[in-house]
Specification:
heterotrimer; A alpha/beta; B mainly alpha; C mainly alpha; A: alpha/beta; Rossmann fold; 37% helix; globular; B: MetI-like fold; phosphate transmembrane transporter activity (chain A); ATP binding (chain A)
Chain lengths: 252, 418, 458
């Protein structure tokens, strides 16, 4: 099976500082892939190269190639806007727009012209909120501000917003780090349900979470990809000493 | 070997004295600070109070009862003519002014006409327009008095006028009332006839040009610098320019307007168009700086969120950042406009100090603005202008107060704290 | 058609293009094709912009050149042979004829104007016709060309956004243009001035009386030293003698002693002092303060106490500057780390000792920077000195005597019926240049000081 995203020899520099050092990795279509590693190891940086969110940092420079369905996303002809619609992202801190819940979800479809008739848009918003497991909680107050929701609900709203533009890949950058355990459980449950429909890459510093939600795990350290394999193997039988030290809590 | 130090005796009288002295110094320092605050506020209060004190009488006028028999005056005018449009022209042409002077002479002796304001016949004219039956009956109308009499009636005038006022008051023919003309007419040579509407309209036209240029340009420049500008020498140059322009003395902008708009482009002198252009250049940096601060305050997470669903950089800014920053930008704009409205010096440079007796109706008509009108009146010798100047200042301060109130309202109503 | 009408029609055409392109792009939408590079509305804007911008540029250029073309055409007519040679009369006849032709006036002072008016009207009509035709043609052609590019594969959004970015860039370049305009116009006029008056005479001469300029030696009466001194004396000495103690002590009291509630309403009250227009201060200074100062001077036995004294103008200017000094001092004091203050208080220092020995020395660079900014504001202030200071330049350090300033002289020199090119008016630009350079230098120094200070505690 050909991978959904295939990164080859990717290095990222911030000015003169190298943040990612020759990383090659494949993201499969129906798996959840977890990036783990100590803070500052570059896992979030690498995640952000996958939909070119690093472009917003002026000093960032990327070398190597990243192929989405065999197409180089850093090629000059690539439309970044379309790329980000295909590769969506959920951030560490929930960041709903300061608009109504409905407008939060409808914004993406509107700018991409995915639904023209009001009824289509309504249906799309409902579908997205349902898939994000938020519909029953908010269906009576779609006009309330998105920022008025609780933290966990806000994060699910952000997931609904990402789903609404019908992406192929969803990147999640420590999506639960700002949430309480109950909200975290709901998000993890959601990830399970979304698996298969979307390729999912999740960055987490919580190894239990990686073990619970992912099928594959990649361990990053100091900008390098130390080990990459099936989640079960990584956690029970790591090949590298550095991985073992991290997993057993020697550093982190 | 030094001797081991003795422990300080904190109960010694010397220590107590010293502590008392230190506390006294503390109290003195604190009182000095309090005095500075109160004196500063006192200056403001004194300034405002003295303007109010001198200015309120400027909104009022002294009137004298004038018995007039229009029918006997044989005006060449028919009741039909004083209705509708051509009325002013018809009455002026019919010799009403002379008729009013004759009536004054009849009522108050040979120098009776000198008691009346130059604008007295206008009051009679307006009365006839309101009530055409006056054309064929006798009536007693209250008309404005001459400036010297007005001053003497309100404050201390010259002895001559004071004596006349005393005589007239004994006859019970003087009365006072709100001056209708002050808020509706333009500049004049006679202080009893002046009004600020001309200057106010000039200010409005000038401000319209200023806001029409400075607001869009300022907001777009702020968006560019804060959201898109690459870090390079050009951007640095733009930033340095804007920060310096905000600190350049306003009179320099007047010199620029004189040399460029009048000297090079030959735009009309004294026009609200040129005044507005000059003030726009002065106000734009203020709006850019306020706009950048407001844009900076929009959290980056909003931009990330929009980018991540595939919004283009232009969509991110115009769909999300600008609407969120708008209240802050508007607050800054209103404050910049208030400054421009009170500005005098640059407008003197481009000739907006002319005597303008008709309110401007187009952007290229000669005009003056409120602060310049204040400046012009303050230079007048006639004592009647003192209260008019202060009254115009009251109007200016009320407009500025309203604008600042609006800015505060915007800030409190729409500001989001992140 | 008048220019305004053409602009309206062009806007109408652009609107039609916008609608047409939108409708056409809407038909690209096929079920199953999920993603587009642009929305129909982007195609609409693309065609609209293409139909709008070229005619508007043409009209802008045309409105600058057309009057000259029309006048040339009129002069070429036989009736114009009777025109006097180029000069004021000829220009006034032509402008009268233009006003007659446009229907802006009904009577003419010159008879010739009336005969030329029909020629004017004809030429105007012909050129207006050309302008209308070209503008409408441009709108239609450019709009149609743009419309042919409306295809699914065409990235309309990218094109439209490029225009938006250009607009943003152009807006920010206005700031540079303004700066360049100021520097260029001041330099150009000053260069002409220094062509008449030696720069040394201007900068170092001690005699200033522009009312009588001797044609043989204009520099003798245009020595600006008394103005520089007067400006410094009023703005940097007297005004600061009022503003610094009041501003600084107010800031200290409000930040260190006052109850937060008091501070909340007292600070805006003080800031209102800065919001009062300068013309009001000028009037206040001239009408109320100046006579009082003169009486004080006479009471103190100063014989030449003037009613246009430096003290009156400077003191009122100082009052105006109080909130400026106080808010700069406020910022600097707030930037001093609380740990410094706590350290001092913990040793048993009283609050005033802490303020004087610890907080103020630590905040000093920021305060000094703020004072420099205030000085720059004061010496550029115009209306107060125009209304309350004297027009006579004297070199004196007596605050009760009359003194003049650079800004007052700029206003005086440019008022009245002087020729634009005379040494007198050009001197105003030389003074303006000096003022610009000095305030700029003060601002740069002050901002550098403040910035260093901020960095020290960050």
């Amino acid at each position: 099976m050909t991978p959904k995203i295939s990164a080859r020899d990717v290095s990222v520099f911030y000015g003169a500082k190298q943040a990612i050092d020759h990383v090659s990795i494949d993201v499969d279509q129906d798996n959840v892939l977890a990036f783990i590693g100590p803070s500052g190891c570059g896992k979030s940086t690498f995640l952000r190269t996958l939909n070119r969110m690093n472009d917003t940092v002026a000093s960032a420079r990327v070398s190597g190639e990243i192929l989405l369905d065999g197409e180089d996303i850093y090629a000059s002809g690539m439309d970044v806007v379309q790329l980000r619609a295909r590769v969506g992202m959920v951030f560490q801190k929930p960041n709903p727009f300061p608009k109504s819940i409905y407008e939060n979800v409808a914004y993406g479809p509107r700018i991409h012209g995915l639904a023209t008739a009001r009824a289509d848009l309504d249906a799309l918003v409902e579908q997205s909120l349902r898939r994000a497991g938020l519909w029953d909680e908010v269906k009576d107050r779609l006009t309330d501000s998105g920022t008025a929701l609780s933290g966990g609900q806000q994060q699910r709203l952000c997931i609904a917003r990402a789903i609404a533009v019908d992406p192929e890949v969803i990147l999640m950058d420590e999506p639960c780090s700002a949430l309480d355990p109950i909200a975290t459980a709901k998000i993890e449950e959601l990830i399970h349900e979304l698996k298969g429909r979307y390729a999912i890459v999740i960055v987490t510093h919580n190894m239990q979470q990686a073990a619970r939600v992912s099928q594959q795990t990649a361990f990053f350290h100091l900008g390098q990809l130390v080990e990459f394999g099936r989640t079960g193997d990584i956690f029970t039988n790591p090949r590298e000493e550095r991985t073992r030290d991290y997993i057993t809590g020697r550093y982190g | 070997m030094t001797e081991p130090r003795q422990p300080t005796d904190w109960t010694a009288a010397e220590v107590h004295r010293r502590t008392r002295r230190r506390y006294a110094a503390e109290r003195r320092f604190r009182l000095t600070g309090l005095a500075a605050v109160w004196l500063s506020a006192g200056f403001l209060a004194f300034l405002l109070a003295s303007m109010l004190w001198q200015g309120t009488s400027g909104f009022r006028e002294t009137r004298i009862a004038l018995p007039i028999d229009v029918a006997q005056a044989n005006l060449a005018v028919t009741p039909a003519q004083v209705k509708g449009r051509g009325a002013d022209l018809a009455l002026a042409g019919a010799g009403l002014e002379a008729a009013v002077d004759r009536a004054a002479t009849r009522a108050y002796g040979s120098n009776g006409a000198a008691l009346l304001s130059d604008g007295a016949w206008l009051a009679v004219r307006d009365a006839i327009k309101r009530d055409p039956t006056l054309l064929d009956r006798r009536a007693t109308l209250a008309v404005p008095v001459a400036s010297a009499i007005d001053v003497a009636a309100k404050h201390d005038g010259n002895p001559d006028a004071e004596a006349q006022v005393a005589r007239l008051q004994a006859r019970g023919v003087l009365s006072t009332g709100w001056s209708r003309g002050f808020l509706t007419t333009a500049d004049a040579t006679d202080p009893t006839r002046v009004g600020i509407w001309g200057a106010l309209k000039g200010s409005l036209l000038t401000m319209a040009v200023t806001i029409g240029l400075a607001f869009p340009i300022g907001v777009l420049a702020a968006l560019y610098l804060e959201e898109y500008a690459p870090r390079n020498r050009w951007t640095d140059l733009i930033e340095v320019s804007i920060n310096n322009l905000a600190a350049v003395p306003s009179i320099i902008f007047g010199l620029l307007g004189l040399a460029v708009f009048l000297g090079t482009f030959h735009l009309p002198r004294s026009a609200p168009l040129v005044g507005g252009l000059t003030l726009a250049l002065m106000t734009m940096p203020v709006i850019v700086i306020a706009g950048r601060n407001a844009i900076k305050a929009v959290p980056p997470s909003v931009r990330d969120a929009a980018l991540a669903v595939g919004a283009s950089p232009v969509q991110v800014v115009f769909d999300h950042v600008l609407p969120l920053a708008l209240p802050g930008i508007l607050t800054g704009t209103i404050i910049g406009m208030a400054r421009a409205l009170g500005e005098t010096a640059p407008l003197l440079m481009i000739g907006m100090r002319a005597f303008i007796a008709a309110p401007p109706s187009r952007l290229t008509d000669p005009a003056t603005v409120l602060p310049v009108q204040i400046f012009l009146w303050s230079d007048e010798v006639d004592r009647g202008f003192v209260e008019k100047t202060s009254a115009a200042i009251i109007v200016l301060l009320v407009v500025l107060l309203a604008m600042n109130g609006l800015a505060i309202y915007f800030r409190n109503r729409f500001e989001t704290r992140w | 058609m008048s220019n305004l009408a053409i602009v309206f029609v062009v806007f109408g055409l652009a609107l039609i293009g916008w609608l047409a392109a939108r409708m056409r792009a809407a038909t690209f939408r096929k079920p199953g094709v999920a993603r587009f590079t642009a929305l129909p509305v982007h195609y609409g804007y693309f065609v609209g912009i293409c139909a709008l911008v070229p005619p508007l540029i043409f009209l802008a250029v045309w409105s600058l050149t057309a009057p000259a073309l029309v006048t040339d055409a009129v002069i070429a007519t036989p009736a114009a042979a009777a025109l006097p040679p180029p000069g004021f009369e000829r220009a006034s006849i032509l402008s009268e004829a233009r006003a007659l032709a446009a229907g802006r006036s009904h009577g003419a002072f010159h008879d010739l104007s009336a005969t030329l008016a029909p020629a004017y009207a004809a030429a105007q009509a012909r050129y207006d016709g050309i302008a209308t035709a070209v503008a409408l043609l441009l709108a239609c052609v450019c709009g149609a060309l743009a419309f042919t590019r409306v295809r699914p594969a065409f990235a309309a959004r990218t094109q439209v956004e490029r225009v938006v970015m250009l607009l943003l860039l152009a807006a920010s370049l206005i700031a540079i243009l303004t700066t360049v305009g100021i520097v260029a116009s001041l330099l150009y006029e000053s260069a002409r001035f220094f062509g008449i008056v030696p720069i040394g005479d201007f900068l170092f001469g001690t005699h200033w009386s522009p009312q009588v300029i001797s044609p043989s030696d204009p520099g003798a009466s245009l020595g600006a030293v008394p103005l520089f001194w007067g400006t410094f004396f009023i703005g940097a000495v007297i005004a600061m003698a009022v503003a610094i103690p009041f501003g600084l002590m107010s800031a200290i009291y409000l930040t260190q002693y006052a109850h937060p509630a008091t501070r909340r309403w007292m600070k805006p009250v003080l800031e209102m002092l800065a919001g009062v227009p300068t013309v009001v201060y000028g009037y206040f200074a001239a009408l109320t303060v100046a006579p009082a100062v003169r009486q004080l001077g006479v009471a103190l036995g100063i014989a030449n106490a003037s009613s246009e004294s430096a003290l009156a103008a400077g003191a009122v200017m100082g009052i105006m500057i109080i909130p400026f000094v106080s808010s700069m001092a406020d910022d600097s004091i707030a930037a001093v780390p609380a740990s410094m203050r706590d350290g001092s208080l913990a040793m048993g220092a009283t609050q005033s000792e802490t303020i004087r020995r610890v907080i103020l020395p630590a905040a000093l660079p920021g305060v000094v920077g703020g004072i420099l900014l205030a000085v720059s504001r004061a010496i550029g202030e115009t209306m107060i000195v125009v209304m309350a200071a004297s027009g006579v330049a004297t070199l004196t350090a007596n605050p009760f005597a009359s003194t003049t300033t650079v800004t007052k002289q700029i206003v005086d020199l440019l008022t009245g019926e002087a020729e634009f090119d005379s040494a007198k008016t050009l001197a105003a630009f030389a003074l303006g240049l000096t003022l610009f350079v000095i305030t700029l230098a003060l601002n740069i120094v002050a901002l550098t000081v403040v910035k260093r200070y901020r960095e020290a505690y960050d």
